[in-house]
Amino acid sequence: MKKTICLSLLLAGFFNLQAQSAALSIFEPLIGKTWKAEGTWGDGSQFIQEITFAYDLGQTLVVSHSKGFTNQEQTTYGDRNHGIRKYDAQTQSLVFWEFDVFGGVTKGNVVQKGKDIVYTYQYGDSQVTDYWQYVDANTYNFTVGSYKDGNWEQTYLQTQFKANIPDFGFTFDHYSIIVDKLMETGDFYRDVFGLTEIPHPDNAPGFRWFQIHGNSQLQLIKKDVDGFTKDKSMHLCLSTQDLENFIEHLMAMNIDFYDRPGNKNSITDRSDGAKQIYIQDPEGYWIEINTAIP
What we know:
- It is a single chain.
- This protein is α+β, with helices and mostly antiparallel strands.
- 15% of the residues lie in helices and 47% in strands.
- It has helices at 2-24, 182-193, 243-252; strands spanning 34-40, 46-56, 61-69, 77-88, 93-100, 105-113, 116-123, 126-136, 139-148, 151-163, 174-179, 196-198, 207-213, 216-222, 235-239, 268-269, 275-280, 286-290.
- The strands form three sheets. A ten-stranded antiparallel beta barrel has the order 1-2-3-4-5-6-7-8-9-10. Strands 11-14-13-12 form a four-stranded mixed beta sheet, with helices on one face.
- A hairpin with a 2-residue loop joins strand 9 and strand 10.
- 15% of the residues are buried.
């Protein structure tokens, strides 16, 4: 009997965790990002908010930390709300609490509509809805108001939350491939593509470096490795607006070219309007050449 009870409890806990995980998955696009929005309330006061979301307690909770105005004069900005989103097994629904810097607590329910997240709660004598309408992975339209039967009876605020994606200023630097025939392959890239060879900074043996454009480089590294299939999906891609003359150049050098499906001496017309061909270097690596405008 005791074993049966223990097994039942274990199964109940397991299914409860599954239900929690499924319910909280609606917050997945929000997790690990900082979301910012600015707008104007219906009474003319300013709205500025910055929110972060994270899982907690083994992903059984979603916690939020919000920054906003911390005084009625809207002159002080800082930590304003801490919130919890949790699956309630008894009601089989999502509930939330928001604790604010003024000592208040707002409690309500959360429902999912497709990818949208809809909060409903009491504010004084009114039932209020905060509606997060999914736009893309980094954007939600945000509306606060009275929402009933799929219609807005009154809106108090309309704005947009956008994720603050850091810009590290990355640029393309180089593409490296491991080769066995260093001299032959290096000569191929020099002669076929007209790339300028540049010295290795340490003058180390077993390397040949080529300038592609600006500071971008192709780096050949001579190294013994186990053989592997050179699939067309793994390729270097170079772009030119003079594909016709480049093809004549290939033909003069007796170098075959192919379209994407693999038809010899054929050109692919891409859906974006660019044309593309593929060739192989002496190592068997594929190179795409297209007319896309950088």
